[in-house]
Specification:
This protein is mainly α and 165 residues long. It contains eleven helices and no strands. The chain has one domain. It is globular and about 50 Å long.
Length: 165
């Protein structure tokens, strides 16, 4: 995970950009029609994701279980604390910014420290290896976070700025 756009999911805003042009009410109608489609119909997921605001469709690893699943699994389930509560403050900090920036902020604050770094640390320690994460160096990170999204993801390529000759 880095600020260079290394995951395919960061291409999603570009793929769904047409829904930004259709308007709120048209998107609501498309969403309702898509919900009527049988599961497994090609394009249903695309229509559903495209007609839902980023803040509701992208929560990174903050969401593992649906609310109904959590209710079944947890003895102390709290309906007043849905998964979206984890990401709301990060989205509020980035109103008006590029969707890719917003998605990466979610991942940096939920997935990176709560999963990726932890697993990397445990795995390397189990094999007596020392792991260095050069892209997490403060200076590299501060420069990388200023790179515009169109240089992180371009021509269908992730990490475009790093791959460019």
């Amino acid at each position: 995970m880095n600020y260079f756009g290394g995951y395919g999911i960061y291409n999603e805003p570009h793929a769904l950009r047409m829904f930004n042009l259709t308007g709120k009410y048209t998107n609501q109608a498309i969403h309702q029609l898509a919900q009527l489609m049988p599961d497994g119909v090609k394009g249903k997921s695309f229509l559903l994701r495209g007609t839902v605001p980023l803040e509701h469709r992208y929560v990174g690893n903050a969401k593992i279980f649906e609310e109904l699943e959590k209710k079944k699994l947890l003895t102390n389930y709290n309906a007043n604390y849905p998964f979206k509560n984890v990401t709301d403050s990060f989205y509020q900090q980035t109103v008006g910014r590029n969707p890719v920036d917003r998605m990466q902020l979610i991942d940096i604050n939920t997935w990176l420290n709560g999963d990726l770094l932890l697993n990397a640390d445990r795995t390397t320690m189990a094999h007596s290896l020392e792991l260095r994460t050069p892209f997490l160096d403060k200076e590299v990170f501060n420069i990388a976070k200023e790179i515009p999204a169109h240089l992180r993801l371009a021509h269908g390529t992730t990490k475009y700025i790093l791959r460019k000759p």
